[in-house]
Specification:
The chain has 185 residues and is of the alpha/beta class. 41% of the residues lie in helices and 11% in strands. The protein has seven helices and five strands, in the order H-E-H-H-E-E-H-H-E-H-E-H.
Length: 185
């Protein structure tokens, strides 16, 4: 989790993955810790407790910084423009950018839930560069056809779509053509 707005998206992803018994490795930037406190009722220690393993963003020797450590991929949720820029241009001076760089070089998906608007041309260039090196730019955009009725619905829909992109089956997403009550929890 980087320091962009939308901390609840990362928290919900951790909850869902924990409930699915999928091992997670959490890295929180300093700004992410601040955003959690500003945007949610969660304490950082409680968010960390949702993860299987917690790494310091300064620990470039963590297992996830090595290509030999096997993963399904990586979600940066939420993802700041600073984080996406570092990854896009190979500035791997913290664990978030290093782990993402490793996933990309190993051909594993890196899904960046970028939370910034509006975007200027510098942001767009960094996002394009990230996509060109294999990253998935995934702004949290509501699926209006799903007729979401609450912020919780929106969070679940976004998290479900991120899981889809990582190849993890889930029932959080109301898919096109499903009725209001099919496959949506």
């Amino acid at each position: 989790m980087s320091g962009a707005s939308g901390a609840i998206l990362g928290i919900r992803l951790l909850q869902v993955l924990r409930d699915m018994s999928i091992e997670t490795h959490l890295v929180l930037s300093a700004a992410a810790k601040r955003t959690i406190a500003e945007e949610t009722e969660w304490r950082v220690v409680d968010v960390e407790a949702l993860a299987s393993v917690v790494h310091s963003n300064k620990d470039l020797s963590a297992a996830i910084a090595s290509g030999s450590f096997r993963t399904m991929g990586m979600a940066i949720i939420p993802c700041s423009v600073r984080a996406i820029s570092a990854i896009a241009y190979g500035i791997t001076d913290d664990l978030i950018s290093r782990a993402a760089d490793v996933c990309l070089k190993e051909g594993r998906p890196v899904v960046a839930v970028v939370r910034e608007a509006p975007l200027h041309v510098g942001h767009l260039r960094a996002l394009t560069q990230f996509a060109e090196i294999g990253g998935v730019v995934f702004p949290p955009v509501p699926a209006f056809y799903a007729r979401l009725t609450s912020l919780d619905d929106f969070v679940n829909q976004t998290v479900g779509r991120v899981l889809d992109r990582l190849g993890i089956a889930n029932t959080l997403v109301r898919r096109w053509g499903e009725s209001q009550h099919d496959g949506h929890s």
